[in-house]
Predict the structure.
Amino acid sequence: MRRYLGLGFGALLILIIALAVYGGREETRLAQAQASLRAQSVGDAAAIYVENCAVCHGAEGEGLGATPPLNSEGLRTADYDTLFKVIARGRYATPMAAWHQDEGGILTDY
């Protein structure tokens, strides 16, 4: 009986140590996962931009012809909802088309 009690206590001690080590590494693991996800999202966004937006706005967002540049202070300070709506719905009386699937485009919320 005493032997089982000792084995149980040893197993519990190993479990506590393993949990502490895992918890200590969690912040690093989370930071690495976020960096990986951000890199994947930026890569996906760059591919979408090249396929759909660069034709009018230029490879670096400098704007071509009558289309406005995207690398402007106004767009850098614009809130997310406004930018999302412009891309999704387009702009009336401009060459900016609606790109969201709900508006007849090819892009999803992702």
Remarks:
- Residues 2-77 form one domain.
